[in-house]
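Operator note (shift B, R.M.): manual run for C-type lectin domain-containing protein requested after the automated queue skipped it. Running by hand, logging everything below so the morning shift can see what happened. Input copied straight from the record, untouched. If output looks odd, do not overwrite the archive copy; leave it for review.
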Amino acid sequence: MMSPMTCTYVYCVFFQLWLLTGFTVTSLPNVAPSGTASQSSTSHNGIASLAIDGNRNPKYGDGSCTHTVENAGQSPWWSLQLPVMYRISSVSITNRNELSERINNAKILIGNSPENNGNNNPSCAVITSIPSGSTRTFDCGGMIGRFVNVYLDDPQGILTICELEVYGELVDTYLVMGRSVVVVEKKLCWSDALFYCRDFYWDLLSIRSEEEQREVEEVMRNASLHLTKHVWLGLRRYLMAGTWTWMTGASVDYSYWETKSIWQMTSPCGGGDTDGSFHWRDLPCGDHLHFICLADFPEDDKRVMFFSSTRPSV
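Run finished. Output pasted below as returned.
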């Protein structure tokens, strides 16, 4: 467990619901049909894939809407797994023309975590209501993820979706020794970078070997944005010792530090150069830098818990 710290800069993310009546999406494609749909249960032949078949027909009897089991003993959900990560601008949902209130208070969730069938991901919006047979568009503000879920927190509830459309663009990802990584265009302090990666991807990058180091260097050379002089990595030093650790829980068998300094004179936050030698170095934790996230979720989660005065443990 890591010790508390506070950034000099507090980065706040507010998720806001926009229920737009006349909003249309023209600049980005609907990527939902490229994904695979699933749901908590199926009743009345309302299979999950009917929500991404391109048919907005709101009449359930015409066979164009999904349907979960009534009183199934678990809160109903519908999930879309996209083939790759997208930066999602908005989600449009078409409601059935009868019993339209069934979708009220369902949440739209977006993220990369497959845990709990994708229902642990961050919220884009809460569906207060969608009028009978209507389509409503919810602004998700560029949230990033492979999973788009609709979750209704009601074990006695029924979830029906006649069509769900996801409008977004591809997120640039790179492969490093078979692991998907993302260079994030935001500039954040170390702890906020960690929170961002854990909220929207998996964790800050760990580098476990010389081969991975060389591939990360290639990623930074080819990054589409002009990187800060250094980028944050998932390196963290225990406050009362000279031991460095990866926040992913990976072993620190390989290192690429520029110099070995007396630990009492170093910062506990670690990053790497983005050109030249690409060495690792300790950096002031409050510096606002680009950073690299790991996007893949491993089967065994060994991440180091981190506490901040502005956030609960992650």
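Quick read of the result: The longest strand covers residues 77-94. The chain has two domains: 19-170, 174-294.
Leaving this for review. - R.M.
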